[in-house]
Design goal:
6 helices; about 100 residues
């Protein structure tokens, strides 16, 4: 299942997989082979409760993925992402820049 494989740097947490399955329409969930039994649904609902409390207080750098910050930088005229964005891109995508 490559949909939730990430860049291979960090394993995708089970709660994230469960949350993704919970938010998908049934037809897509079935097509991707994502289970959503009682245990997965409870895990997804716990994650949603926590995210709703934590997300609003997170710094902007953590609220949005690094490719978003890279795109914002390009819109502001920067030709290269800053060090923090490159580091987070490496974590999210396995490479420093979207155009690598």
């Amino acid at each position: 299942m490559r949909l939730l494989a990430g860049a291979g740097r960090l394993p995708i947490p089970r709660w994230y997989r469960n949350l993704t399955a919970h938010l998908m329409p049934e037809r897509l969930r079935a097509s991707f082979g994502l289970p959503l039994g009682d245990e997965e649904r409870r895990s997804a609902l716990r994650a949603l409760r926590l995210i709703r409390r934590v997300y609003p207080v997170l710094p902007t750098r953590l609220r949005y993925v690094a490719p978003y910050h890279e795109a914002l930088g390009r819109l502001c005229g920067r030709s290269r992402p800053d060090l923090m964005t490159r580091s987070l891109n490496r974590l999210w995508m396995g490479r420093e820049c979207m155009d690598d």
